[in-house]
Amino acid sequence: MPVVSHNLTVSFNNCSTSTFYSRFAFRNPNQYVEFRQFPRIYCAKKAKRTGKLRYPSEKKKLREKKQTKSDAPTRLEGVWRISRLAVSVQDDPGKDFWDISEPLLKEIAKILEFPVSSMLPPEAFTVVRKSFDARKLQKEPKFVYTVDMDVHKLLHVEPRTWEFISELEPKNGCLEFLHFDKTFGDISSIIRECQKIKESATSAEVVHSNHITGSEHFSATRKPKVVVVGSGPSGLFASLVLAEVGADVTLVERGEAVEQRGRDIGALIVRRMLQVESNFCFGEGGAGTWSDGKLVTRTGRNNSSVLTVLNTLVNFGAPRCILVDGKPHLGTDRLIPLLKNFRHYLQELGVTIRFGMRMDDLLVNGETVSGVKISDSKGSFDSSSQKLGCDAIVLAVGHSARDTYQMLLSHNVNVVHKDFAVGLRVEHPQELINDIQYSGLANEVQCGRGKVPVADYQVARYVKGTDTSILSNMEPVTRSCYSFCMCPGGQVVLTSTDPSELCINGMSFSRRSSRWANAALVVNVSSKDFEDLNLTGPLAGVEFQRTFERKAAMMGGGDFVVPVQTVTDFLDNRLLVTSVPPSSYRLGVKPANLHELYPLHITEALQRAISMFNEELPGFISSSALLHGVETRTSSPIQITRRSDTWESTSLKGLYPVGEGAGYAGGIVSAAVDGMHAGFAVARNLGIYDSSLDSVVGKAQSVGFVKY
């Protein structure tokens, strides 16, 4: 009888004790050895995971198994995605080449196990992703591709590949059948195509579609009025969506259009004249206009919403390579003409754009907003005040709109402080970063005109330290320290919005040809840090920022001069170097004790992190590396709470807080995605949109979850 214990089945296979020992002969016939035959042990049948308990890999295999029969005929018509195609730097045409090269065809043939690469027509393949891998773990730096193969086009150009393609099977991680070529267009094209489909439907279906939204409705002669406050990425994309679906949109921006904004920034750099409403933070395009123009996001490059945003940017003048580049960026010189095209298109749709107009107050009727009060941002508060009535307000202000936060509190809008990060901006010679990252390939950079990209870096570490407050009882605190907004071939710029405060950021142009590389080195701070300075309330984070921005201004001595310190001196808590290395900051620098700027626990966290970064990037600690103070506006210090179903403020109906200033994004792409979905949410609540595009542009993430 079998004996079962702990899911194991033991079987003696009818073996008696007399035959429990066996004799085996060796080469010498006179030699024998007795071998004890142990019972065989069988594992019980493993219980299969079902439903939601299955691992993602198991779900994928199950889908592939179910689709095997149905895929057979379509595999001669669909698209195969080929990944992990590596081409050496010597063989690749370079970072600015986005087509199919001969060395790439050879790598494709290897993955497909196709005997003759020259038989594969290049026009049947499309590069969907290209990145540069210079990690030290690799034998050599290489370009890594992801390519789509159009089977129909391949068979049309080279019919002799039919038999080979018909027998092609997926390979885990490098070859996948997509069934169809799913392409994403810009948001305007997607909305128009959807409208054409709806127009072809019967009138009864249209009435039913409008009825099920459960929202307010407007007659054909009266469009719903929406005021969008702020012309950053979230405000622009919200305006675009609302205008396309038929709303009457007014876009209010406290700053100036990019043409005048550029002149105001020039006056700041040359004559130290700060326009408090038109500067590096305020104006058309938001704070990201004069930046590196990074288009990376943690939301995911293959996310439907992200692809829709990127295609929309291409439609307004961005180069198509941003759809392919592994680390896409635009640069200020490309962002300015793009924003002009965006503005002109909005005006063609009927959007009214009011530059140089600041929103001073909300008009509230009960618990619902009914409009805004605006005034000339260059004039006094009471002069030229105007009231704009509306059905909804999209609040898309940036993270520096501190007066707006204060105004919201006066209306009892629920505003909560949130964690963010502060620190210093470090600047190295770009050649040094090239040498650290590329070693022998550093000469291939050629100031952004060579075969390989200008070297960058991204570092992050968890640092354990102690809090200095009495209440903490010296409990160990773990903080995340990381590089932020790294600008290769860039420069350090002033982002102050008040003459008595000093804060900085980085920017670069599309070619990234500057002699310097800069990045913020920041450490996360929370309510505990605010309380240590006796700062409480919803705007405690704002006051925390102000405290150190004013201290930095005093260290610099005024006139927007930035306090600096070499990395080596910062680590040694001293100021021996009075003749500092050259800086890209154009308003002047002054040696200062930056190690005394922040509280001790923040300074020590930064010092430990820099030492850790040097282990990953040998040479990062250098006498030519210069720290600049202060970097405080890495993200919004507050969050304006909103409902998950309607996207409205939890305090006022009709108010839609979106983007980075509201605490729901961080960066150009994530802010644009949030603004786009907010536009659809507003339109849905106003009864002019029925969620029919969710399957195309993707569903919005939970409004309580921020993923930059």
TrEMBL record:
Domain FAD-binding residues, every copy: 225-263
Domain FAD-dependent protein C-terminal: 419-634
Protein name: FAD-binding domain-containing protein
Coiled-coil boundaries: none
Stored Pfam families: FAD-depend_C, FAD_binding_3
Origin species: Salvia splendens (Scarlet sage)
Domain of life: Eukaryota
GO molecular function annotation: FAD binding
InterPro entries in UniProt: FAD-bd (IPR002938), FAD-binding_protein (IPR028348), FAD-depend_C (IPR049516)
